[in-house]
């Protein structure tokens, strides 16, 4: 892979995605060892810069860096000088002055990681930018699908819920379409618009419209923090039309894979029994997250195509 | 110069190494054979088959990929392709025979030793190589050697082992991969 940054899956080729997933497969084994660490990125510095809350993604990146022997430092906006009015560019200039090799960034504005990538020599990994992309989540989702279903090509993946505000959905759409999957979307009209068909997907309406066709049911959380007024009538109505419960799971394909990027709102998009059901791959997704992030750090920094400016 | 060993020579060398390994360890009790990716794997497979035949018991066999432990990952020389490390037994307390096709700078073996220590604590580690071509950059030596050959540092040594038709195997110096 010859890239300085990983900003999104839009425009990332099939062979690059396969390379990342194949590499991640190897890294999974390391997390199962007693000594969960390899010396590969010894002396490299990884900064996680989070302007939005996170549990999974942040811990996952931190562990990925540590298991590769890189040194990691985490900054969250709520406890940093951002609170004192520092601009993003100034924060980045100051971080750059301390010679990081990779900055992993989450920001509420779409395009924020792209701005840093253009202006600084360190590698940037997008850990979620507004409603735009969250490429590492989509990669771990694709790894999970590949492991559980034996492949991605030709599989039907239904993404259900607040698609419009979901960077997870957007990255998955780019990645899954590139990998040859058939993608169906379902969600309230305010959160799942017909125009999205331009991305090579099929937009339907309620969960019942996609239930029987899907090999994978990817359930999304309602992004309350991003909703405009009048976009959601009530959680109860949402749950009735778009939520996955046991009755619906029984109507789906027998081997259907239930996925969710977390955090789950139990009882809204997923009923508790479904979340904990054996068809659910939710915790497998989390395990795969560490492996995928290790693979990305390794591929961005290791060998040819690495960040040569910082090697010297 | 081109082919320096052909199938039958390679077969005799590996057979002699198999005998030497069992002799110096007083049998195969606690012994395991570990091939180093990618070149060492075929040699290790032949060795473990022969040792099994000599002693009448099969010896635990594993493979190790050292990519993540290399010291030249960031020199931009080549693209890292990750292989798989498979050590399906507990290393602790065992005698581990590392197997590679060519011993050159010794850096691969150094990386390998580091990786092994992350998997367990063998009581002894030995090194078996089909070809020792000299030019060590680290203080590392092999315990069992198929053949020592004299080379220039810039020479290219290739080993091809055909597991299905072992007589088609060869070792060449600056050859173009001749059969």
How is the largest sheet of chain A built, in terms of strand order? 7-6-5-8-9
Largest sheet of chain B: 5 strands, parallel
Distance between the termini of chain B: 14 Å
Topology as H/E string of chain B? EHEHEEHEEEE
The helix/strand class of chain B is alpha/beta
Largest sheet of chain A, in brief, is: 5 strands, parallel
Say what oligomer this is.
heterodimer
Structural description of this entry:
The complex is a heterodimer of chains A (312) and B (179). With 312 residues, chain A is of the alpha/beta class. Chain A is 36% helix and 14% strand. Chain A contains ten helices and nine strands. The C terminus of chain A is likely disordered. With 179 residues, chain B is an alpha/beta fold. In chain B, the strands form two sheets. In chain B, strands 3-2-4-5-6 form a five-stranded parallel sheet. Chain B has a three-stranded antiparallel sheet with strand order 1-8-7. In chain B, helix 1 packs across helix 2. The interface between A and B is medium-sized, with 23 and 18 residues.
Summarize this, please?
The complex is a heterodimer of chains A (312) and B (179). Chain A is an alpha/beta fold. In chain A, 36% of the residues lie in helices and 14% in strands.
Keywords:
heterodimer; A: 312 residues; alpha/beta; four-stranded parallel sheet; globular; B: 179 residues; five-stranded parallel sheet; three-stranded antiparallel sheet
Question: Mind sketching the topology for me?
Answer:
The complex is a heterodimer of chains A (312) and B (179).
Chain A: H1 14-31, E1 45-50, H2 56-67, E2 71-76, H3 88-96, E3 102-107, H4 112-119, E4 123-129, H5 135-149, E5 156-160, H6 167-178, E6 182-186, E7 202-203, E8 216-219, H7 235-242, H8 246-251, E9 257-259, H9 272-275, H10 282-301
Parallel strand pairs in A: 1-2, 1-3, 3-4, 5-6, 5-8, 6-7, 8-9
Chain B: E1 3-6, H1 7-24, E2 31-36, H2 39-55, E3 61-64, E4 95-103, H3 107-119, E5 124-132, E6 144-148, E7 157-160, E8 170-173
Parallel strand pairs in B: 2-3, 2-4, 4-5, 5-6
Antiparallel strand pairs in B: 1-8, 7-8
Helix pairs in contact in B: 1-2
């Amino acid at each position: 892979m010859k890239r300085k940054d990983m900003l999104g899956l839009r425009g990332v080729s099939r062979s690059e995605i396969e390379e990342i997933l194949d590499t991640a497969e190897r890294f999974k084994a390391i997390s199962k060892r007693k000594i969960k660490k390899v010396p590969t990125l010894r002396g490299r510095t990884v900064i996680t810069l989070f302007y939005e809350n996170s549990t999974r993604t942040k811990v996952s990146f931190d562990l990925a860096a540590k298991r590769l022997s890189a040194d990691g430092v985490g900054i969250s906006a709520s406890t940093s000088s951002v609170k004192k009015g520092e601009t993003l560019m100034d924060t980045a200039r100051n971080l750059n002055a301390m010679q990081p090799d990779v900055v992993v960034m989450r920001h509420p504005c779409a395009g924020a990681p792209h701005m840093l990538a253009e202006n600084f020599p360190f590698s940037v990994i997008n850990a979620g930018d507004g409603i735009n992309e969250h490429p590492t989540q989509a990669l771990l989702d694709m790894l999970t699908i590949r492991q559980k279903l034996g492949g991605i090509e030709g599989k039907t993946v239904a993404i259900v819920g607040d698609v419009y505000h979901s960077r997870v959905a957007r990255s998955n759409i780019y990645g899954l379409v590139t990998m040859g999957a058939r993608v169906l979307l379902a969600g309230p009209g305010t959160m799942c618009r017909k125009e999205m068909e331009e991305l090579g997907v099929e937009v339907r309406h309620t969960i019942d419209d996609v239930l029987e066709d899907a090999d994978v049911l990817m359930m999304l959380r309602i992004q309350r923090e991003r909703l405009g007024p009048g976009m959601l009538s009530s959680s109860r109505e949402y749950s009735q039309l778009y939520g996955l419960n046991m009755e619906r799971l029984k109507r789906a394909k027998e081997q259907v894979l239930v996925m969710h990027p977390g955090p789950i709102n139990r009882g809204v998009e997923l009923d508790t029994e479904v979340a904990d059901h054996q068809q659910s791959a939710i915790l497998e997704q989390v395990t795969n997250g560490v492996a995928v992030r290790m693979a990305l750090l390794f591929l961005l920094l290791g060998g040819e195509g690495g960040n040569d400016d910082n090697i010297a | 110069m081109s082919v320096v060993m052909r199938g039958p020579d390679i077969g005799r060398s590996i057979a002699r190494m198999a005998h030497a390994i069992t002799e110096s360890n007083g049998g195969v009790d606690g012994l395991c054979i570990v091939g180093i990716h990618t070149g060492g794997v075929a040699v290790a497979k032949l060795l473990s088959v022969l040792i099994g035949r000599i002693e009448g018991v099969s010896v635990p066999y594993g493979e190790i990929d050292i990519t993540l432990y290399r010291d030249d990952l960031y020199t931009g020389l080549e693209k890292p392709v990750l292989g798989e490390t498979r050590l399906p037994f507990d290393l602790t307390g065992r005698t581990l025979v590392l197997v590679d096709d060519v011993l050159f700078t010794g850096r691969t073996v150094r990386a390998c030793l580091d990786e092994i220590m992350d998997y367990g604590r063998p009581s002894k580690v030995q090194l078996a190589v089909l070809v020792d071509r000299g030019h060590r950059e680290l203080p590392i030596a092999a315990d069992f050697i198929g053949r020592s050959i004299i080379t220039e540092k810039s020479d290219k040594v290739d080993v091809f082992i055909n597991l299905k038709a072992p007589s088609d195997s060869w070792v060449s110096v600056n050859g173009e991969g001749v059969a």
